[in-house]
Amino acid sequence: MKRNIISDAVPSLICAFLFSFALVSTAIAQTGTSTLRGIVSDSQGQAVAGASVTLKNEGRNVSRTATTDSNGAYIFTSIPPGVYVLEIEARGFKRSVSTDVKTLVDTPSTLDAKLEVGSISEVVTVTAASDITLNTQDASLGTAITNQQIKELPLADRNPATLLTLQAGVTKEGYVAGARSDQSNITLDGVDINEAQTNALTSPVLRLNSEAIEEFRVTTSNANASQGRSSGAQISLITKSGTNAFSGAVFYGGRNDFFDANDFFSNRTIGADGKSIPRPARRRHFCIDA
Question: Left, alpha or beta for 70 (phi > 0: left; psi -120 to 50: alpha)?
């Protein structure tokens, strides 16, 4: 009996394509996001299984829910960096609410919780610690630069890429942990923005603006499989997203030649009027809102 080889191969090809697409989607989702995990236990240190854990971002009106496993563990993956509220409910325990939970780009965070015995209608509010900059979840080395640092540190031409050299092991020429300056990988919201010709660390193909960047992380070594494109630094930048609160920024830049010194040779050159060549006019004024 003859078999239709093509028709038999089609389902296999479709399955292989869908499987490959799923892998690619997962890899992309891991770039420029964060992870929050922890263990829920009682006052005796025993794991609380089946607890409902809700992670809310009040600024964006979004939330995600998970359930603790038999070890009392929960995890939220591929979450946008930001400030969250973590709520935990379990039968026989007071409801736990942790506020000001901050997650950073490409930096896994841990937040454990202890529940107190009581009615679920009672609420125990806990203020979480400040930004967790020390990564204890994987072997990658790097530091996240937060939005407050981007806004308050001096920047040349308001380009946040100049802050990349604040990381340990990074030189102003762009050499990272001994790797050449053209061996870095730069992504913006998970999209490759490497300059194909030079691939310089501080010169991506897109012009970056400090008003548009929320934060970024420079992984100097031991990058994960979701990042490891090259041997140099792995830079993940994320842009600001909309919130319920109106916000904006306006800044003015100006340049005037009033305080400029004249060129040496212009001073030495005497014109027909017996005067030296005047200094060139350099006047620029611009105002930008974002």
Answer: alpha
